[in-house]
Amino acid sequence: xxRSVDLFIATPVPLETVAETVAGLTGFSVSPGxxxxxxxxxxxxxAVLSENRHSRDGHPPLxxxxxxxxxxxxxxxxxxxSAPAALLRQVGHKLQEKSGWxxxxxxxxxxxxxxxxxxxxxxxxxxxxxxxxxPA
Length: 136
Hints:
By secondary structure, the protein is of the alpha+beta class. About 20% of the residues lie in helices and about 35% in strands. Helix 1 packs across helix 2 (about 85-100).
């Protein structure tokens, strides 16, 4: 079970524009990741910006958000006290202050990552990049 920290972002602009806006407003390193994703880094902390994977899986309150910036809280830490949560708070503050986009930060939205063989490996503090995510 992973403990995620998510910043959901509602805007009609393309994902690439969101990534450029995050980079421009925060000064954080933003670079392309896996296809359809952008990596947002501040030092050793990394979050993944992508289309909202929860918008079509039975989470109606999240349907209005086109994108999510997601990180995983390290094992043994409270998600709200983690470095990834601090990164998302900084991004959210800058976006809210300058863009006018609607956002929602969610701590500890739990999900299970299922690999091709059905295994559910520990993410080791990293955001899963492969496999299918299934709501817990």
